[in-house]
Amino acid sequence: MNKMLRSRSGQALVETALVLPILLLLLLGIITYGLYINAVDTVQQAARVGVRAASIGDSLGCPGDSATSQLAAGDSPTVYGLVDDQLDTNKWLNLENSDVPVVSYAAIVGNESNTEQDTVLMTVALTYHPMVPIPGLLPSTVEIAQTYQMMVQNAQPSDGLTTSQPTGAPYDETSTWTTPTPPSTNVSYLTQPGGCTS
User: Fold this and answer.
1) CA 36 to each of CA 22, 87, 177: distance values in angstroms, whole numbers, following the listed order
2) What is the DSSP letter of 140?
3) What Pfam families would the database entry show (predicted)?
4) Looking at the DSSP assignment, which residues form a beta bridge with residue 23?
């Protein structure tokens, strides 16, 4: 009898040793992919917040701005400041110090038939580092970009707009993230003020 019990417990131990690593990998994959979906949702919310700020006339600002610091100093928050603060609320993003969100373009698109229906079209892009990369599914770095559109409520200051699409850093490295393609007719792009370091 004791011999049979020892045999069964040994068999259960071997089965557990074979199945447990597979179950743990599956669980880790589900958690990692869930955190990636959470990151995409956070970037989408940041794009919503940013396009809302642009639609009420807030200036673009610079990468790395903080709306909290701007408000504490008595200044109006910038689009970048609000986008950055929105992303900072998600502690699961696993951002590195060099990762800052990029507004790959923010444009005022004119409605030729009704100027009161101009819209802001904006894309926010971010480099995301999954906690555990999954070969073939989730590489060690993933570029997340989300686009959002909203009607203009307050016009941008005229010196904050240009008819040509911004170039140079950080826009050059986001050329593959501009989906949909930035409009080319009846459009003005929000510009960064001088002195941006990124």
Assistant:
1) 21, 14, 17
2) S
3) TadE
4) none
